[in-house]
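Is this the right way to post structure tokens for a design question? Let me know if I should format differently. Anyway, here goes:
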């Protein structure tokens, strides 16, 4: 992806009760860039991710994702944008315990409109890429925390999206598993995908060439290593 993959311009997000999660945030992320968004709890990191991922609309300001003006899109168009252009990785894994790893990943591509056989083939390939080729039929309760996060990553990358958004993907993992997951995300996005990751862990942030620091809903520093 060339040009800007993600762009916020003077974005504010306000919740009921006068809570301002984001205050006039402007930022541009170039296609293929790896960015860590860091800051203390309550700084607006997760809100920034949900706005970038079109899961929430801003109260005011302008959002562009993969060259698309989000404000001009209806809910169905945004769902299509997410289905084809964005892979999400969350701290809580969000896997269905009753389904196998293969079916969890294939189910994540349901809204792409691809046939079931194509989705299962892509899911198998993604799980093999993350080192779980021998765990395809295991359900989440049968997997370690690190393995469950790998399933979640496989689900995010199976459709080969140009943008990967990760929200505290190491938050439920021990240190060793966390390092493996971050290394895997960097590796998998080296084929040109844009990676934006939310973290409060400075050690994780230090693995990124660009770090955006948020505090009280505002960008206080935007630095490159």
């Amino acid at each position: 992806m060339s040009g800007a993959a993600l762009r916020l311009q003077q974005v504010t997000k306000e919740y009921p009760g006068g809570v301002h999660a984001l205050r006039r945030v402007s930022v541009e992320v170039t296609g293929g860039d790896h960015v860590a968004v860091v800051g203390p709890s309550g700084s607006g990191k997760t809100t920034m991710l949900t706005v970038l991922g079109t899961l929430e609309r801003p109260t005011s300001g302008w959002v562009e994702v993969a060259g698309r003006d989000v404000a001009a899109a209806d809910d169905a168009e945004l769902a299509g944008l997410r289905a084809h252009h964005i892979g999400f990785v969350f701290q809580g894994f969000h896997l269905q315990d009753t389904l196998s790893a293969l079916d969890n990943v294939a189910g994540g591509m349901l809204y792409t409109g691809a046939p079931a056989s194509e989705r299962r083939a892509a899911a198998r390939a993604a799980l093999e890429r993350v080192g779980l080729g021998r765990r395809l039929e295991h359900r989440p309760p049968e997997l370690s925390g690190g393995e469950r996060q790998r399933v979640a990553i496989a689900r995010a990358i199976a459709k080969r999206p140009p943008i990967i958004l990760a929200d505290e993907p190491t938050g439920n993992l021990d240190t060793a598993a966390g390092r493996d997951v971050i290394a895997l995300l960097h590796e998998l996005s080296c084929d040109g995908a844009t990676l934006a990751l939310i973290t409060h862990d400075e050690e994780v942030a230090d693995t990124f060439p660009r770090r955006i620091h948020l505090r009280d809903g505002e960008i206080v520093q935007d630095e490159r290593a």
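Format looks fine. Someone answered above. Worth noting: The chain has a mean pLDDT of 93. Residues 4-224 form a domain with the Rossmann fold fold (CATH 3.40.50.300).
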